[in-house]
Amino acid sequence: MREIILSNGKAVQVECLSCALTSGKIMPDGGVITETKYFHAHQDVAYPIKGLVILASKRHIKCFDELTEEEKIDYIYLLSKIRKAQREVLGIEYVYYFYNEDTTHHFHTWMVPRYDWMYDFGRSVESVRPVLLHARNNMNNEENMKEVMDAINVLTLALNKREAF
Ligand SMILES: [Zn+2]
Fold it and tell me: Residue 5 above 80 pLDDT?
């Protein structure tokens, strides 16, 4: 069991944070952005970057080759659907994708929008960790947090409106 401190300061014991989130045991700040039968998308506002999305599987698996055929199709469809919404409603031009199989949680992909300030930390994979830490340590202010929460709301709306037939 691991102890997770929620943003409200409450500590909860969970076996796997991704399981707790995707099953609804823990509700992420900003809520569920969208979900399918196999995947669940939310933002981790501990890293207050506007438009950042974490796409997690609902099954407790770690590796890409553990996905079933149906999950593979659902994954790429949902990933690109979220990407399209980031572009259309938030004007996000580029996204970095980060996914590590040796996670202490389970299968989840970080979709990290690329903003101009991030190039101060490098242009490629080496900049991902410093960018996330910078956001966590220096961007947790009221104004930015409001922008982050607004972005979650517009993404959620864009991704959950009914498809036109
Ligand atoms: Zn899990």
Answer: no
CA of 23 to the centre of ligand 1 (A): 9
Q: Please indicate, yes or no, if residue 13 is contained in any of the structural domains.
A: no
Q: What is the pLDDT, as a whole number, of residue 161?
A: 83
Residue 119, C-beta contacts closer than 8 angstroms, at least 6 positions apart: 127
**Is 118 a domain residue?**
yes
Centre of ligand 1 from the C-alpha of residue 142, in Å: 32
Residue 83 alpha carbon to ligand 1 centre in Å: 24
pLDDT in tens, 57-89: 999 999 999 999 999 999 999 999 999 999 999
Number of domains present in the structure of the chain: 1
Rounded distance from Cα 109 to ligand 1 centre (Å): 14
Using the mean position of ligand 1's atoms as its centre, give its distance from the Cα of residue 155 in Å. 25
Q: Which has the closest alpha carbon to 18: 78, 79, 99?
A: 99
Q: How far is CA 156 from CA 76, 85, 127, 129, in A?
A: 18, 9, 28, 26
